[in-house]
Amino acid sequence: MKNVAITLILLMAGSIAYGQHTINISNTDSGKSGNADHTLTIGSDGIHITSYNKDEKRKKIELIFFMLDLGINNLQDKTNYNSPDAQAYLQVNQDQKNSNLFSLREGKSVNVNIYPVMLKFYALQTKNQKIIISSGFGIQSYDFRFNKPISYVNYTSPAVIMDTISFSKNKLGFYFLNIPLGVTFKTRLSEKLWGVYGFGITGGYRLSSWTKQISDERGKDKNHDSFNFQDFNACLTGEIGLDKHFRLYASYQLTNLYKNALDQHPFAIGIRFGGV
């Protein structure tokens, strides 16, 4: 075990300096009916464990570690601001009860998705086309930076108010435990270049929601609360790019961010690092 550990460490160090290394692990137990090889690949794009079918000579299942989405997000607002629920939830002046109340500093409203482990299954493999089904788990986060000094409160009931001071930072944040299910297509464009495109859906459970405000009067103030937000969400996702070069992603939340009163749907676009 000690020698194996030393070998793995040396391979990881070498992969960073010189490229990619592969370890082949064969099923040599003649008493078992399994007929597969396994490959551990350590490279600059991460660690991959691949399962090969010896008969077909093609990989069927691959376990990949670490995929990161980094982008900006915004809100599609479908709220009927004349409804009794919206009127009661927004405790601001009547002329402020509209979508402009939630206008964002778009360049600083950030979406980050982290997937530590993804499992991908090759549904189709030909010389020029691959179809991959994938799933895993991860963390989906939203940060919404507001232009106006609104505050989410939860006294006798949740509400949004217009604060009496100005904030240098006024942010609403979320963490969701996220499970994706996607279909990815890879099409050969040239001998060494593959186009990548795909779509999927994610389901999430809200782990945390909070506000963070910074002002001269109050300093840094962070408040964790549900604030009338849904516990579960579902998103449509898509990606496009060139395999091992770059990928762009997009997502749109199908479910309402709120339980009631308001009707807002986050969407995001950005860059994907790694991928199936």
Task: Describe, in plain words, how this protein is organized in 3D.
This protein has 2 domains: 1-56, no CATH class; 67-273, no CATH class. With 276 residues, the chain is mainly beta. The strands form 2 sheets. An 8-stranded antiparallel beta barrel has the order 4-6-7-10-11-13-14-15. Strands 5-9-8 form a 3-stranded mixed beta sheet. The longest helix is centred in the N-terminal third of the chain and has 17 residues, at 2-18. Residues 1-22 and 28-34 have low confidence and may be disordered. Helix content is 8%, strand content 61%. The chain is elongated. It contains 2 helices and 15 strands. Strand 13 and strand 14 form a beta hairpin.
Unreliable spans? 1-22, 28-34
Structure summary, number of beta strands = 15
Rg is 24 Å
What is the total number of structural domains? 2
H and E order: HEEEEHEEEEEEEEEEE
Structural class of the secondary structure composition? mainly beta
Q: How is the largest sheet built, in terms of strand order?
A: 4-6-7-10-11-13-14-15
* Overall 3D form: elongated
Number of helices: 2
Q: Biggest sheet: strands, sense, closure?
A: 8 strands, antiparallel, barrel
- How far the N terminus sits from the C terminus, by CA atoms, comes to 31 Å
Give the averaged pLDDT, no decimals: 87
Query: Helicity, in percent?
Result: under 10%
Beta-strand percentage range: over 45%
Oligomer designation: single chain
Keywords: Signal
Protein name: Outer membrane protein beta-barrel domain-containing protein
Signal peptide: 1-19
Organism: Taibaiella soli
